[in-house]
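Re-run with default settings, no changes from the original entry. Doing this only to confirm the output is reproducible before filing.
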Amino acid sequence: MTRLLALVGATIGGYAGWAAGESFGIFTAFVVSMVLTAAGGYYGRKIGKHYGGRARCSRIVELITQRKTKRAQRPQRGLFLCELCALCVSA
């Protein structure tokens, strides 16, 4: 939720910055757009954290890391070069 709101805030901020700076020239529009994109992303993320998006995201991250550690504990399948050479020598 925090990332979605950060994206929405950055999009709205970028559009508002471009509209505000466009009358002064394209470079000014670009600079103001970048500043307001960052501000919109920051405040969008802040709003997302306020409404509890962080708890859900942290739980998802926890589940993903548990899956990765379980995968790392499994033995690797397939033939690698050293196994292939060992098979050739023992055969």
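The chain has a mean pLDDT of 76. The CA atoms of residues 10 and 41 lie 4 Å apart.
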